[in-house]
Records
---
Amino acid sequence: MKAVIRTVLILILVLAAAAGGGAWYIWNGMQPVEPAGPPVTVTIEKGMGSSQIADLLEQEGIIKNSLFFKGYLKWVQEGSSFKAGTYNVSPGDSYDTLISRMNAGDVVKEEMVTFTIPEGYTVTQVAEKLAAAWNQKPEVFLKLMDSGEGLEAVSLLEIPSNPQLRHRLEGYLFPETYELVKDSTPQEVIEAMLDQLVKKLDTIPEWKAKLANRGLTLHELLTVASLVEREVVVDKERPLVAGIIYNRLDKGQKLEIDATVQYLLDKQKERLYEKDLKVDSPYNTYKQAGLPPGPISSPGLASIEAAMTPEVSDYFFYVTKKDGSQGHLFARTYKEHLANIQKSKQNP
């Protein structure tokens, strides 16, 4: 009997020791790794499950045992809300710390580039702005702006490929303040600007129907809008000047808009001379009837809306006031226009 009791006691002690050893093994395996070295960058891809994430954390030396981490996740009912992204994690982080950060999406903030394209900028000016922001040569961006190659929005917007165009994407790069990832490629940067144009157009109720009612293509609309953008500073005058442009087009008159000639010059002039107005180009609206081949700048939303919904009037002429207001005097006839020119000169 004593021998039996001794055997039972030994078995109990062995089982207790085994259980204790197993418990210690599990407890130890769930403890944070000893802190050592700098944080480790770990990227959780979209679609990765908690099991794959656990294996990745073990592989990167963040946790001791992925099996224990998986078990812990099931016990605390976590792991279904982990967010994809790149994390800076450290050996020594506890299970709860790791879970909390991945639930919150506490990812590494990517270095961003912020740049602003003012309304009325030309493609050349935009390229220079982007080149400065990304420490590139303007030609890198100009090449894409001229060809439109590989840009999805080119098809969506039906941007024409016309040999008469100075720059294919002129007028389509929406003027806005942008914040993009520093690692963005030139193609991604330009695509973002084209996408912004689409978004802005979609803020105009029934813009496609309005365009169809006017019998215009988007390219023609943006061309008119770009003329308004370069000719007008006072917002309330934009629809009126757009209406004057349509009045001239409807009558078959030449537009004779200075901004189209300025567009052909390497450097803007404060005043155009007779020789400037004689330059041979499809963009010169003093020589060519109708609209130029395409936009001459990047119009803002106000100018686009003005071109889409112009103010109806019987005006055909306008001249800039010289009083510093940057407004215009409007006329129905050429005789009235000449009088307005003299009147504008009398402004202080």
---
Amino acid sequence: MKLAVTGKGGSGKTTTSAVLARTLARRGHDVVALDCDSNPNLGISLGVGDDETERLVSMRQALDEGEEEHAPGWDQVLQRFGSDAPDGVRLAVVSRIDNPEPGCL
């Protein structure tokens, strides 16, 4: 199952995404949360903390500026640019996914 939460700024997308992700993970689902927002704060809402959220945001900025190489596949995205959040949620802060593998996103 793939879910996307969209809406205008300030409408509660990040909070809704965090609640959905943690609830589904607590119910035994494998959950990967992707923060694609221009102001990525999903890590804070998921409970990974300020420092880890900032680390993930910095990695995304390094990618955008060409200082870091893109990951060649989904597993590498999660391994290199992901973080474990509470309740078994895996979080990654991304700006785009080039050449997604079948079934990805």
---
Amino acid sequence: MFDDPNVVLHCEKIDKIYPGTKALDQVSFDLLKGKVNVLIGENGAGKSTLMKMIAGIEQPSAGKMYMDGQEVFFKDTNAARARGIGIIHQELSLFPNMTVYENIFIGHEFKKGLFLDDKKHVEGANRILKRLEHEIPPETMVGDLRVGQQQMVEIARNLIQDDLRVLIMDEPTSSLSAAEVKVLFKIMRELLETGISIVYISHRLEEIMEIGDHVTILRDGKYVADADIKDIELSWIVENMVGKNTQYHRFERGIDLDHAEKVLEIRNLSLPKSGGGWLLDNVNMYLKKGEVLGIYGLLGAGRSELFECLMGMHPEHTGEVVYCGKTMKIKNISSQIKNGLALVPEDRQRQGLIQTLDICKNTSIASMGNYKLGPFLNNRAEEKAVDGEISELHIKVADKKLPILSLSGGNQQKVVIGKGLLTHPTVFLMDEPSRGIDIGAKTEVFEIIHELSEQGLSIIVISSELKEIMAIADRIYVLSNGKCTGELVGDEINEDNLVRRSYAGLGTGKSA
């Protein structure tokens, strides 16, 4: 029996055991009523696993949960939803071949006799999307939306629930722009005023300090500490998360980039937008051997589209790409991999991983041709290569034959990086490589990027995190509205210059 009027849900000594790993170990957690309850920890700490227990997606191996003074057990999501619990997943769980309004009301449909009342669905979708300041036409196919818009649809699905008492938000801002994050925070505050309690998981510590009320920290599946946000500082959070105060530091370069050769040169690259205008507008830039080149810009600036053109996903692009002194004939993705380019995509679930394959196959899939033995696959060579990447990238895995979804989000991202490295690229394109990765894992990834560049690999990194891009990049190009609005190097690389340049292509088109 547990009864505290200030606690809407109490978890008592929760265990969760998977084959080969204990994801949660005697974790107790209080979800405070009418508060933003922040849950943080490194990847693999057990945050998402604990939330899956509360949302009825999975069941505890041991332990109890209480609501309103009574013990509860959620055998599935419907049971949790009946008690007013909703969840916004870290990885989008939308149906791309269905419309926006169909996705929002799936499982909560209105009926008119024997038929669905789509008029009511469209009206409801319009109302909730207007509240979210994202007036997307409800008849739009979700697969045609950019990731940030899809995230808003995912959020909208939960806000239509009338009896909502607890809303779990697992990395809800990972795909959102700064403006979209402000809207989300406004909605969160409105929800608190109606008595709804929020669980908020995020790796963005500045967001946590801004929106959070109470923070609970997990490490290696165990409870570490909790405190009110008003009583702590960022350093306290970081120290409890990783056991030490980790700060981004700018890497000292051991190579002479001034005299390094150009391996890639982009000349007047343009990509038309359907309906008129340009996704990329006469972009010019170059990359040197062993350089870490940063690309910074707001959402919709054309960052990902630049990478997609280089990887052969947009044959309609114009302009010239010179690679190792020769004009490159860009045909398709497979030919670009053979040419020496590899891509870590922004959306690891849809574009970086194959959910039905195990960890080993996901790592080796792009380089399978390297492990042929006549007409057969040399499994020993393949597994040796994969073991090498698991060791080099410090991927936490009990068995590489386990499903890819058995890994935490951060370790899944490392598999995507390892997959690219196994193709032995000359140019490595990394689109938001630290998205959804905790501080400790980010530091490891940045060190890997630095080490690879020291070995002569040329890397282009897209990041929307100012401190990250400033720490790892030797030189930075800023994109705004499809245009290259600045090239920053040395002392020019600072937050003020990056922010000003990222807004320079908007509105008037004049430089800030």
---
Amino acid sequence: MGENGLTADVEGISLYYRANGAGYILVSSQGNSAFNVYDRRPPHAYLGTFTIDGVTQTDGLDVINLPLGARFSLGLFVCHNGAAAPYPVELVKWGDIAAALGLPVETQYWDPRHPRIADVPPPALLPISLRVVPNPARAGARVSFHLPRETHDRLAIYDGAGRRLRLLHEGTLAAGTHAMTWDARDGDGRRVAPGVYFVLLERNPLPSIVGRVVIVE
């Protein structure tokens, strides 16, 4: 048993951003199916622990402060549920979690679609040459990116557990701007469940680029 009840494995960590360096670090305590919350600012004080009904053995998680429609007006917490196959991604209202722990909610500060307003130095940000629009999305999204040179590329969609759901493209692309559409369906043509998904552009021999898209009902 670790400090503040943190129990191995610790396989999910995410940041909730607030202004002036404030916010929270969320950590998956997989061994006891709980989630610990710490202050984002040093010395990272422990702020509390919460659980999600029916969720166990979480490998990965994420959180966003932005309002995502009426259902998630105070932000969204998502996590992998290892309780039983098919191991779904669970969506939880961040406002409910924050209220239970007495955490301030801030819905106007950090927007990953506009990283210039974040208090993270630009060199530390993911490359901004990959765009996903709209985001959040319902029926699907358009993925656009710019290649400075001809490369062999693979563009694919992954779920929060790291499983590849859909291969959108594999082959050589010329230098320039490209756009492809994902219809929010997996490789078997089934619509994916609401949640957070990742867009991975592998560029050989250039570094890969990762984007994120939220699919809503």
